[in-house]
Amino acid sequence: MRATVVVPVLKSRSRGGQSESASTRTPESRLEEATGLAQAIDLDVVNGSIVPVNDPRPATLLGTGKIEEIKALLDERDSGLVIVDHPLTPVQQRNLEKEWNAKVIDRTGLILEIFGRRASTKEGTLQVDLAHLNYQKGRLVRSWTHLERQRGGGGFMGGPGETQIEADRRMLQDRIIKLERELEQVVRTRQLHRAKRRKVPHPIVALVGYTNAGKSTLFNRITGAGVLAEDMLFATLDPTLRRMKLPHGRTVILSDTVGFISDLPTHLVAAFRATLEEVLEADLILHVRDMSDADNQAQSSDVMRILNDLGIDEAEAEKRLIEVWNKIDRLEPEVHDAMVQKSASASNVVAVSAVSGEGVDTLMEEISRRLSGVMTVATIRLPVDKLALLPWLYDHAIVDGREDNEDGSITLDLRLSETEATELERRIGNGAKSSKEDWER
Asked: How far is CA 83 from CA 96, 349, 411, in A?
């Protein structure tokens, strides 16, 4: 379908009476992103317009002159769809469709359409359907009054019975309740999975970032998984978890989450909360940023705002978050070198290229360091009846040396965190004699 993208730039009045932009993003970057969103569902974008709006109209948002100007463009380009990169009320959407004689969708509707196409798992489909129904419920307009049911009550004074719009709303509400019940079951299942993971306490590392920042490409680079990774907004939607080994042998779980975007519809935030809670459970969060994008600072602010809405405040983020400056292979050599040098001097930043692999080893070392905390050096002798602990040790500790003794026992030189050292002492002492020779530090 041939589509036209319209980006309204609203102006807000400051106290001094001067007009200033209501958005921190440049209009050009908004137009580029909206065009990318449209192309993500195979629309043929034939025209894009930035429209200053000094006085938003309640009925149409845009002024009469701009509406006529855009109508002429639609006729000229034979465009049957208009994407308005701004929230529209149901009245505004309906009036614009009448004026332009074309289908009109706003930013929320476009993102819902993309999510509907991308959802592949049952959970993802349920979440998108729920968000779409909640969005649609508020956009039912009074029409088809000839389909009103017969009058309610008795006698001539009885008012009209249930109208078509009321019946539609009731059916929508019934479907919403059904989906919410199904999602509750999904949430319970996800909680059970988390409980099982806690019993085998592998640390969880979550990838977050603006859509198309390169999270899935980095995920594939680190884990060797085959997750879809394309230069496209919202190329992947459903979360993916994989086990991976850190440089010193420790096993962690890496989680690839849905990409964030500015002005993410509240319906989607609510529907995808069960998925996004994977981030809350993570021991470490990797915030992947596309440093080749001129608007990356504003994108970073949007991501941090959503994390804050989820309950991860600035102090929490400081302890659990590593910024991954991705796509440095796209930068000019001078900018590339300066960025690598700047990241090396920062405590929570690593510059990488998920495509070429540059900096990925440094990132893995940083993940290992951050998850290890204060390391304990230990020499341990495992008796024959405790050899079943070997797999646990290789998963949770760094084994620097191993000696197989004549009596069948094994002596290991280990490095492990204080928490895991305490857990190991408990496991060794559980049901067996623990001596100073068995555990030396």
From this structure: 11, 37, 67
**3-state SS track over 19-68:** EEECCCCCHHHHHHHHHHHHHCCCCEEEEEEEEEECCCECCCECCHHHHH
The enclosing H or E element of 335 equals helix 333-345
Residue 194 has pLDDT above 60, yes or no: yes
CB atoms inside a 10 Å sphere around CB 296: 17
pLDDT digits (tens, 9 = 90+) for 286-333: 999 999 998 899 899 988 988 888 788 877 778 889 999 999 999 999
Helix residue ranges per DSSP H, 200-234: 215-223
- How crowded is the C-beta side of 260, counted as CA atoms within 13 Å? 28
Amino acid found at 200: V
C-beta separation of 162 from 151 below 8 A: no
Q: From residue 244, how far is each of 1, 203, 253, 275, 424 by CA, in Å?
A: 42, 11, 6, 21, 22
Q: What CA–CA distance (Å, rounded) separates 319 from 323?
A: 12
Residue pair 323/349 in contact (Cβ under 8 Å)? The answer is: yes
Report yes or no on whether pTM surpasses 0.90: no
Cα gap 347→344, rounded to integer Å: 8
Q: Is the Cα torsion angle 194, 197, 202, 205 positive or negative in sign?
A: negative
> How far apart (Å, rounded) are the C-alpha atoms in residues 40 and 441?
57
Encoded tokens for 418: 């204080």
